[in-house]
């Protein structure tokens, strides 16, 4: 995973496109001969628009849990001895002085933890991206809370490094798909957003890109059968069970042993996810955008969480993994 760009300001803008971005460009009119992969990213799907969750949705809770841990650990350490009858500890003046010095010592850790927790909590439950097939527009609820829009045909999509600088031995290189809105010169980046998902293997991202590209270029019929699940987050906060499910999306397609070993960690992280979601606002599109995204009542390609199966299907994940490994 990568959190370096969780602040919109981390995306470099007012700059020229790099040679690597041009080399890795994903072209709207170029059909790739691969299996489209929706990557469990859909919120709504219909003939008018397709709405997806953001790049960090399945990781929501990791930063918050770590922050809460470092915020609460010193408090528990100070208060715990007071509740043990066998310990001869009384709230004397010396005790409070020791506590005061301890708090001063750990204040930098608390400051950093609060800064970190605000990356996920007290913000928005998710940052939706809406692809309007009929209007050929893309609407983005950006990380800074500003809603931006751009014409589909004018956006520059590319596979980008999540680390601006990478050195061998510093961990795996993670990639994601970026969409750049360019200025009139078609060379300068004005603003940037990222599509759902990341990977150590850029080839897997092409499957995710092809799902979006075919929807916008070939219409909903081309990929309707590839949508197997929708997140029920458009008008409400997710439940604990739904949040746990979202975190487990990171493990889909992995060997059973890895999933079982990782389960306790995911349960712990889910505590942070609950805090992050419950303290955040539900994003709402303005009336002007909703007016451009009206759905026909008889639309045969409507898909929401109401049609979700009882169990999340993992077959699409396995198919894509097998295709990439070949």
TrEMBL record:
Pfam families: DUF6708. It comes from Caballeronia novacaledonica. Residues 110-294 form the DUF6708 domain. This is DUF6708 domain-containing protein. InterPro entries: DUF6708. The chain crosses the membrane at residues 62-83, 95-118. Keywords: Membrane, Transmembrane, Transmembrane helix.
